[in-house]
Amino acid sequence: MNLRPASNEYAPYFGTYIKLVPDEGDLIRILKSQLDHTYAILSDLTEEQGNYRYAEGKWSVKEVLGHITDNERIMSYRLLRIARGDKTPLPGYDQDTMMEGAPFDHCSVAFLLEDYKAVRQATLTLLSALTEEAWIRQGTASDSVFSARALACVIIGHELHHLRVLQERYGIN
To answer: Are 75 and 120 contacting, i.e. CB atoms less than 8 angstroms apart?
Structure first.
């Protein structure tokens, strides 16, 4: 799917992430390339680097990676329901509450990367089977209208946002 979503296919808040998605290129190819890129820059991290927090009360690198993965799980689930025509309104989620219940700092960097990779592979499999009609199908999530393609763009842009944070505030390149 090459077309980016129109502004009426997502809530304005998510425009922050969607605007980070490259204007050209197939969304599936972008997700595959992003998988390779993210895996490459994080695969050499030591456990000490994975536990690094740039300030008191901020997430560790492991928590950022776990959050990226959890967010993709949630957005992919929403995407599945919407792409299949389910009109049930889907709830939002509180990232801070989820982080409080997450065991990421007790997991190894290697485990978290494998989890990220597995979730991305599942997302790619889901997207690869979508019809053109399914990509533009709309439903409700977080009290807002979303198309399936908008949710795919949220996955991409959300990860790009956090990779920028990892680079700028954690010194990870």
So the answer is: no
